[in-house]
Each structure stands twice: as structure tokens, then as C-alpha cells.
Amino acid sequence: MQNYMGNLAARMSKPLRIRLGGNGMDASRYVPSLKVPIEITDDSNFQTIRTNFGPRLVDILDGMMQKVGKMQFYLALSTLFPDGFDDMVKFAAYAKEKLGDSVDAWMLGNEPDLYSSHGKRPGYGIEDYIPEIETYISKLKDANVIGDEPMVAGPTTCCGWDVNDVLNAGLDKLPYKYYTIQQYPHNICKGPNNQNTNISHYLDHTKVDPYLTGQKVAIKHIEELGVPLILSEFNSVSCGGSNISNTFAMSLWVADVGLKAASMNFTAIFIHTREQGITYNLFDPPAPDRSLEPEWSTGSPYYGALFLSEVTSEGGNMIIDLNLNNSETNSHSKVAGYAIYDDAGAKRGKLALLNFGAEEQVFSIPPGTVEDSVTVRLLLAPDVYERRNISWAGQTIKENGILEGERVDVEVKCSEGCKVRVPGPGAALIALDDVEEGRAKLFKGDSTVQALTAGYFEEGEDEESAAVRRMVVSLTAMVLTGLVGLIHWW
């Protein structure tokens, strides 16, 4: 876990953002007296594993941050059990004490729009939701978890309510730091079909805009309110992914969605990962009970995350879809391109070029764009169906989050214009003048590998301590829904 987290954190211009949430978190209860981080209470529902969790869960987050570096956490507070609100406030109070300003927001509930249809709270509607949220915020204020500055996020809906109806019902009057939505292009909740197994959908740039703007009226309302908008959960196919969710096509799709979301003024996006064995996962241990053994495997979406982690810069960025070959509207186009401006849009920083086809694409950079040369890093695989032989800047993650091979950068002289070749399929991140004010625009290290723990016991460790240590690793990867926030644009 430290390796996978560290690889991303080292390349990012902002702290790595982690959302601990999802249906598992929403269906779980906080038990302040619990001596272990987490205990499963009901795993009969594949989509919602119920647990009890205790203060040690927070200690794990803090411990991971101490190993990997500064993080920011979005911690979900369940709204599924009204009789558990007070305990969730205790959880928030302990997390605030332990994590301090590393908690960026408290996310109130997860998919409350599905409570009724899923039989969790029959008849539950927006008219019930708003008063409960008001009560929740009052409890958090009374416990000094939040003060005058907005610190809550929501409604984290997906499919059942129109977000604009939620805003108009009173959410827009409450002190929200972020508004959050989550959505997937397709689902496999009722089994495979022609849509959720259609890889071509994810190789078509014209499909990304409609996917991200499913609730256009609400997005416009949110923009008028001036509250940052977050895509709090996304991946290829919900309810566990399909046979195409771990292919190289999804490496490219994750990069495309991240860049497109930024160009549309989303403040952040979170890519979803779940328990071991879900096909869209970013990474997986060899088995749920063998998390400290080697042979962790890397999912193809992780490479898209690795690509995105190098996109931004310290001064903030503005991203523009270049509409190459009319790619925003032409479904036959095999390319997409983005201009990435640094210093909050003041100067040209990078280009991101995506090639969804099988043939090499040649892109021209005109004269006067850069003073000297450009540095090109490539995301590559033999074909869009590839699952393992994927590389970023010449390096492949073989196992355990360790980047293997020498980093490869392609330097192209470009003061008088130049051409950049992107093999198909593949993507290129191009730094225009790689060094600026003494800082490299692209990450120069080879990896951020932490020492691997060999075996189940460490010297002098008793069985109980070893069990807790194993749980530390297993917990984050498999039991609760963890999400890695990769893009933060301001």
C-alpha cells in the first residue's frame, strides 16, 4: 500500500487525496470502544460489506500518512442509521484530533437517493434527507468538529434523485464546502450485457462529455452558487466491473476522464477501488488473507492514475480540451488532446495527447511554442485489451507497486516547431520546456518504494500485534471502500 500510494504522492503537486466512503462505510457503525480497527459484521451482500470500526481505523490513516507523506482525507459519516449519528460525531471528533487539518471535508452519507429503492429505509426521500442533514451539521458544530468555515460535503448521490431538486429543497442554504456527485458510464448490477462489455465506448472521446454532464442543470446551479464540484466516485462499470475494466483501454479512459473533468471545472475526481478481486481495482493483494505476502498485482486504471499524477503543477492549472480532429463531436476520431496551463492559466505548461487507435499518430507543435525542447513521456501497451504489459515512461509495475525498468524520456528539439509521435494505442504527456525556475515539470525519481515486510511476523512481535498489522494492510485495500483522489486543480 505504501508503494502504490507513494508512487502517486511523489508525482503530485498537491497532497494525495483519499476518500474513505462508499456503501460499505455508510452501512457500518463506529464503536468507540472497539480495540481492533475493524470487524466484519455482515458480508452476505457483495456490494455492501457491513462492519464495526473503531479509533484504530483513524490511527491507520495517520500511520499511512507518516509513511507516504502529507495527505488529505475525505471521511464519510453515515446517514443510513439515524440512531448512529452521535457515534459518527464521536468518530469525526477523534479523527479531527488525530489528523488535524489533513481532514479536508466530512462527507455526509453515501447514495441516500438509493436508500428507499434498495430497501434500506423504505419511503426515504429528499423531504426526509434535508432535515436530517441539518441535524447532523448541528451535532458536528456542538461537538466543535466544525466551526464557521464550511467543512461538509454531499449529497454524494448517483442515480435516484435530481441533484438540482436536492439543492432547491434546502441544501443550497446549508454551509457546504463541496458538492459531490458520483456516477459510472455503465453498471453490471444485473449481469453482463452489450453496453457494460463494449470496450469501444471507452475509446470514444465524444462519450466523455455526456458522461460527466449527466445533470447539466444541477452543474450550472452549482457553478452559480460558487461551491466547488467534486466527482466523488467514478470508474468504468459499477457493481464490480466487467471483463473490460482491467484493460489498457481503461488506462486511457481514466486519463481522458480526469483531464476532461478538469476542463469542465470539476475541482477534484476520485477513482474508485474496492475489495480484492474487483476487476476495476487499481491494485490487488494476492488474496484477502495474504496481504503481507508478495505478488500484489496492478490494475490497468492505476496507470491512468499515474499519468494524471504528473499533470498538475504547484501554482494551479487550467485545462482546455483542444478538440483535435473534432474529437469532441466526431466519434470516428481516434485522438484527443488537452492544453495544460500552469500558474492558474498564466503560462503554457504541458500537453496531453491521447491515441485510442492502433496506428501511430503524429502531432505537430508549431514554432514559437517553446524556447528549446520538449520532454515526452509515453503511456503504452501492445493493444487496448492488454492487462499487464503496460508501461509509463518506460517503467512497468510488475508486483507490489514497484516500478521496474529505467525511466525513459524522449527529448525533442522544438524551438522551430516539431513533431511528436504517439504510438497506438497510447498517450503522451509533454512538458514544454521541462525545467522552470529551477523545478522540473516532470517527476525525476525512478520510484518511491518503501521497504517490503517479509513474512507475517516481525522480530519480537507477538501473534496479536501481527494480526493487527496484517489487518492494517488488508483493511485499506479490501474491506472498506477506499478512493484515491488524483486531481485537484486550484
From TrEMBL:
InterPro entries to which the protein is assigned, alphabetical: GH, GH79_Enzymes, GlcAase_C, Glyco_hydro_b
User: What's the short name of a Pfam family annotated to this entry?
Assistant: Glyco_hydro_79C
Q: Which residues form the Beta-glucuronidase C-terminal domain?
A: 337-429
What is the protein name for this chain? Beta-glucuronidase C-terminal domain-containing protein
Organism of origin is Agrocybe pediades
Q: What is the lineage of its organism?
A: Eukaryota, Fungi, Dikarya, Basidiomycota, Agaricomycotina
